[in-house]
Amino acid sequence: MEQPGRKKIGFARVSTSDQNLEPQIARLRALGCDEIYTVKESGAKAHSETLEQCFSVLQEGDMLIVTALDRLSRSQKQLGFIAERLKDAGIELHSDREKIDTSSAMGQMFYTIAVAFAQFERDLIRERTQAGLALARDQGRIGGRPPALDEDGIDSVRQMLSGTTLSVKAIAAHHGIKPSTVYKYFPGGRAALNQP
């Protein structure tokens, strides 16, 4: 049964700028959409920004309508996270091609599966991260970028600063680093090293 006051918001996407959005828009209008958000770009940024605009007008009890699930999401993983977000916000989802309507008991099964998939993906990422950190610890490494200079490199820069008249820029270039990196290791540069 149609809920009074419930908004129907449509979302349409084509993957490249030369594809035609009109068939999706026409179908979404036929399905009763009050507003339709469209993406006509191949990039993830445009898709994400438009999806956020769409979410900003959706409220609990509203329905998001797409002609097909692959119009809503760029990947199966992303679909899981979108479904989870919709479910948590109390927003229903209708996909015309797959005949998914989460306002029905059968449609709720989609949310259950999609949300479980999103949680599974998060668990995998957490597992990989923990395994990577453990391996790094076992090998004597810690997280973050490796240092720009090892001990030999630091000694070499020190010797060149104190024993030559080469500019900091030339010394940095010799070691394949930026002048700012020299000053990071030796604040004050040559002048500080040559102080009595």
TrEMBL record:
The keyword DNA-binding applies. This is Recombinase family protein. The keyword Aminoacyl-tRNA synthetase does not apply. It comes from Parasulfitobacter algicola. Belongs to the site-specific recombinase resolvase family. Gene3D superfamilies: Homeodomain-like, Resolvase, N-terminal catalytic domain. InterPro entries: Homeodomain-like_sf (IPR009057), Recombinase_CS (IPR006118), Resolv_N (IPR006119), Resolvase-like_N_sf (IPR036162), Resolvase_HTH_dom (IPR006120), SSR_resolvase (IPR050639). Keywords: DNA integration, DNA recombination, DNA-binding. Pfam families: HTH_7, Resolvase.
